[in-house]
Amino acid sequence: MTSDVQAVVAELNDLCADLEAAGKPVAIMEICGTHTVSLFRTGAKSLLPSSLRLVSGPGCPVCVTSQGYIDLACDLAAEPDVIIATYGDMVRVPGARGSLETMRGEGAEIAVVYSARDAVKLAEENPTKRVIFLSVGFETTTPGTALSVLEAENRGIDNLLILAQNKLVIPAMHALLGGGEMPINGFLCPGHVSIVIGSDAYKPIADQYGKPCVVAGFELHNMLLALLHIVRQVAAGENRVENVYSLTVTEPGNLHAQAIVDKVFQPCDAVWRAIGMIPASGLELREEYGRFDALSHFDLEMGPDVCPAGCICGEVIQGQATPAECKLFGTGCTPIKPVGPCMVSSEGTCAAWFRYNRNTARTVE
Amino acid sequence: MSERKRKEEPCITMAHGGGGEMTQKLLKERIIPKLANDLLNPLNDSAVLPQVDGRLCMTTDSFVVQPLEFPGGDIGHLAVCGTVNDLVVMGAKPLALSLGMIIEEGLPLATLDRMVDSIAATAREAGVVIATGDTKVIERGKGDGLMINTAGIGVMRDDVELDASRIEEGDLLLINGNVADHGLAVMSVREHLEFDTDLLSDAAPLGSLIDTLLAAGGREVKFLRDPTRGGLSGVLCDLAADTGFSVEIEEANVPISRVALHTAELLGLDPLSVANEGKVVAVIGKDAADAVLSACKAHPLGGMGALIGRFTTATPPLVELITRGGGRRMVTRPYGEELPRIC
What is the per-residue pLDDT for B7? Predict the structure, then answer.
């Protein structure tokens, strides 16, 4: 163990032992899917005291995308002269009648892109086709999508459509905490999202619910340090916002990005997979940009969110259950044949447990 | 798409595959002269191979890659390296390859010429001949420009015994250099995913390197495998499953360039699961490991070689990574196409 990591781990061990002895074991929620994976990938989980419980939150964009959205994307993929442009990890998410991967097998054009701007390029290169960008994700990806809409408008590209299902982190945290007593002592807050929204965005959460919020990056030492800051606050009975990723994240965030998003999108109620509708937790295109809206272009409505039988993804992403508590985990639901979205996305909690967690590993297959 | 060029550029037509004059012309002018050798030259229905001493080893592999040419290589280079490497990691001396090319109507002849040149040059480098071959032309839109199948025959060396069943607790794992370059280099030029990097595919024929490793380690080199599709983690998981031992890898010792590390991170990919085409993983008895490592590092394809881990009796048999900071996590086989993630 490197010495800087060792020092943080030692203090975490001492503080958590004291708190456990006092009958107050600590539970911390990491909201972000990238944190979920990074905590495993860097080995951080193996270094934490056993009395410190880490709970995954609803921060994997693929995992919170409703089944109705996937079904809609599949329906659109079957339309003539349509190219679906999507982030790679959406391709395998199962809907009611299959996934985009199965649609591709049936001849639909599905292009994996790395950003919304690639979809603009795709639309420009294929003027006779309608390019539909599956716009999912949190505040990290939304500015890029907004910028692409503006770019398409400026350049007169009229065959780009957006199927918007962008989500907001703070309303989701309110929804989690507003439902009654939540056995979580604090939040490890997402570095990437916070670059855009700023660390000040967590102040209402810290104040209103008395939960420490600490923004962290994704390196081993930085994540452990953030956990230590949370545990220190818990031990001292404090509830402040702290930022240990301060070279990258500022208090107000990226105001320019916020303004671009605000120009193109407006808040709307959104359905979160397996959680349900959360007020003002999503983004839709403003009326001025309505011609980019895939839903109104095809005159479609999103179907209901239906969870597959036995799947407890909803409880997993709300921190109410671990993947290992799901009867399907590792048997009926694996990355090769996923049932719920948490097993599909590389950032999904179930996929991370399946991939990295020695304690739930059956054996090398 | 970039392979289908302007009209004036001479391209493959269906007539090139008809078996008539055009086919003969294509073969005699553009392919056979570049590949000429004693086994191929009679141009019979089959090649007659010389009598050899020892057991024969045979393999086949098909190659589809988009784009056909990528930083550091092309499909022709890959088609020779891939099959040759499958022979040499078994402890075979490659003798001859077959070459099947399925060409899409519309492929520029200039592209085909470059691919045949590449095949010829790589075969020379690998010390193997193309003994027999075939071409077919398929209609536009039914193929990816060019698809290649190569089969290879080699003669097993009798001075080594490469078999995973010989692996014991304490044996060490060596890799001859940086991981993940090939997969990331190809991804960097794939349509709609283009990004600027200076990553080059590592594709290379490994015969000479493997001769060097075997000369240094002899029978103490117990197993060799090229970590192509599925990457390093695929090979390590196979080894844990086949031997019943656990594999413990030190992340800090796994060679990787900074560019590859950060590119993989950006794309949300585990570099251990990304394909390589010029790498070999060797399992070596621990007393011989230093000698084999020194020999590896002295070879042009092994300068960045390193000992990356060991076999242990931890149960159940898993692959575990000791991370740079000193934590631990499991390494699993990738489960299919690795897809760049959202954020």
Answer: 54
**Chain A contact present for B48, CB below 8 A:** no
For B37, other C-beta atoms within 10 Å of its C-beta total 15
CA-to-CA distance for A205 and A250, rounded, in angstroms? 17
Question: Domains of chain B (ranges plus CATH)?
Answer: 14-156 (3.30.1330.10), 164-331 (3.90.650.10)
Residues of B in contact with A356 (CB under 8 A): 329-330, 332
Segment holding B335, helix H or strand E: none
What ipTM did this prediction achieve?
0.78
**CA dist., res. A306 & res. A124, Å (int):** 36
Interface contact B324-A220, CB threshold 8 A: yes
B192 touches chain A (CB under 8 A): yes
Domains, chain A, in order of start with CATH, read 1-310 (3.40.50.11740), 313-356 (no CATH)
Residue B154, SS3? strand
The answer to whether the beta carbons of residues B4 and B106 sit under 8 Å apart is: yes
Query: pLDDT at position A32, please?
Result: 92
Whether residue B4 has pLDDT greater than 50: no
Which of A2, A111, A140 faces B343 most closely, judged by CB atoms? A140
Nearest to A356 among B240, B268, B330 (CB): B330
Please indicate if any CB of chain B lies within 8 Å of the CB of A336: yes
Q: Is the pLDDT of residue B28 over 70?
A: yes
pLDDT less than 50: residues of chain A: 362-365
A211 C-beta neighbours (distance < 10 Å), count: 23
Give the pLDDT confidence score for residue B58 in this predicted structure: 98
Indicate if the pLDDT at residue B117 is higher than 90: yes
- Which pLDDT score is estimated for A365? 36
Of all residues in chain B, the one with the smallest CA distance to A35 is: B343
Name the phi and psi angles at A133, rounded to 5.
-90, 125
Tell me what percent of chain B is helix, strand and coil, each rounded to the nearest 5.
Answer: 35, 25, 40
Of the ranges A179-183, A226-230, B197-201, B261-265, which is most confident? A226-230
Residue A299's contacts (CB-CB under 8 Å, 6 or more residues apart) are none
* Cα three-residue angle B307-B309-B310, rounded to 5 degrees: 115
The answer to whether the CB of A175 falls within 8 A of the CB of A281 is yes
Confidence of residue B3 (pLDDT cuts 50, 70, 90): very low
How many C-beta neighbours within 10 Å does residue B6 have? 7
